Structure prediction request, 203 residues.
Amino acid sequence: MRKPARLEAALVAALLIATQAGAFQPDLTQDIRPDDTARLESLNQTAGLTLRRAIAVADAADLDVLMQGLSGAPLPLGEATSVLPGDWSCQMLKLGHDLPLVVYAPFTCRITDDGRFEKLTGSQRSKGRIGVIGDDLVYLGTAYVAGDTPPDYADLPEQVDPTAMPQVVPDVGLVEVTSPDTARILMPLPHLESDLNILLLSR
Prediction:
């Protein structure tokens, strides 16, 4: 007996999402550096401290950007990976260290069908890979200065010197997709400037 057309379409769509998600979900468990595992594990504590300070003293307009960017529950893993590929407007927020909250102008980022991420504009760049560790989507990348040629995350030296030139350091973050048009990458304890970076993605 032939399935109704609507059911066939739903099955095809589900299969497409599963295929895309499978291609997008490399297991990064063996790739992450031990110190970056520790940074990810500190996310909740770091976010709590930095957000408390930002909410207490940051500019109201900047706080609106922060609160809007943190709103929305993450989508399930398969659905999240199916909508991430494409071009995004990406806006960096930096919290902690010398200032409670700094909101930068939007830049351009791109995510490929296999999870490769790159921040394409601005003086501070990042490129790497989004994949799965446990039940989470995680970004492992290299932060560098525009004009330099960065090494892959896997090729970074065991000991990182943020003051060395050219300036390259590992980026690690928890990726949360909240809709087909909104996502965020939470990066605890970055090597430079702040205690928590939040990259807001929108389109």
The radius of gyration is 18 Å. The chain has one domain: 28-202.
